[in-house]
Amino acid sequence: MRIISIVIGTLEIPLIRPFITAVRQTSSVKDVVIMIHTDCGNVGYGSAASTPAITGDTTNSIIYAIENIIAPQLIGHDIHDFNQLIHLLHNSLQNNNSAKAAIDMALYDLFAQSCQLPLYKLLGGNVNQIKTCITISARDIGSMVADAKMFKELGFRTIKIKAGINHNDDLKKIEVIHNAIGDEIKIIIDANQGWNPKDAIKIINILEKQEINIAFIEQPVKAHDLQGLKFVRDNTNLTIIADESCFNVPDTLEIANKKISDGINIKLMKCGGIYNANAMYSIATNSHLKCMAGCMLESPIGVNAIAHFMAAKMDILYGDFDPLALIKYNPIQGGATIEKDVITLSEKYGLGIDGVIEGFTIINTVE
Ligand code: MG
């Protein structure tokens, strides 16, 4: 199964409502999508989300890296030389992890197809269903309460509240939303770097005294402020998860060694794909760090890839794959489906994706 061409394009999918966090705001998913074609007719799918505020990767930088640097190195190689392909990919250039993630997931898709297994089974999993939480964008309190009630109605049991835009409002928001949805719904609070360490400790210490079913606090302080993150972790009792502070394998090692947080959020766009996600997971679980798996606001192709990864791992406590519930329609034929808060993976080989029906614009084909 030899790689003969790599098609590069863009995919835009409108959201049901704008997605707003402490670092950005958007009304659609805009991904770079790639399709790796082989001489056997098999196609591997991958996608990369442009989130410059978080990863530094833009649509143009992702396309450039794939088109000019990564793709030409892969043409002609057999998918059965999988580790060599992964080695070529990850040594092709520095950083650019979103571009690498798109190619990495497409290579895993093809390798699983060549082994005639769904990807989660190739990775060692045996159950094709996982649960996801759902995110409430940071808006006015009334809108956030309405969203929380709606998602509860729709069957979600863990709700992520985006905080950190105005820390004076955050406690009030969390309390009002909790009162509206009740104790049976778990709450994740994601400050997206929006608090300073002292305010974070104050807010979290108050939350600890309230009877709110809080699963954990995600990324309370600035990504680079590891000292601040550790200070928060050491002076609070709720679980503190590093997201933007933990991109890759070296970050995971540092966080584990210095006990900077209680856990990490593994995302393919941060670490460059499933190969490195595996390494992060191994370091984390061997260092008693808790793991969650998440994604950017990205296309169902990328969500499929991280969902297969999570389904194969025993110790990932929470999945955050809500783009499937936030997009107006799913233009991907095949792949995972969502009902209430349960994602069901395809039993077809690889990611189980058959094609992209709508919204895909071809930029170039590398042969
Ligand atoms: Mg986060």
Give a brief rundown of this model.
By secondary structure, the protein is an alpha/beta fold. Helices cover 38% and strands 27% of the residues.
Commentary on this structure:
There is one protein chain. With 367 residues, this protein is α/β, with parallel strands linked by helices. It has two domains: 3-116 and 358-366, Enolase-like, N-terminal domain (Enolase-like, domain 1, 2-Layer Sandwich); 121-354, Enolase-like C-terminal domain (TIM Barrel, Alpha-Beta Barrel), CATH 3.20.20.120. Helices cover 38% and strands 27% of the residues. It has helices spanning 59-74, 82-90, 97-114, 119-122, 141-153, 167-181, 197-209, 226-234, 249-258, 268-271, 274-286, 300-311, 323-326; strands spanning 3-20, 25-38, 43-49, 129-131, 134-136, 158-162, 186-190, 214-218, 240-242, 263-267, 290-294, 316-320, 332-334, 337-339, 342-344, 353-356, 360-366. It has an eight-stranded parallel sheet with strand order 5-6-7-8-9-10-11-12. A four-stranded antiparallel sheet has the order 3-2-1-17, with helices on both faces. Helix 2 packs antiparallel against helix 3 and helix 7 runs parallel beside helix 8. The chain is globular and about 60 Å long. The two termini are 15 Å apart. Residues 190, 192, 218-219, 243, 265 line the site of magnesium ion.
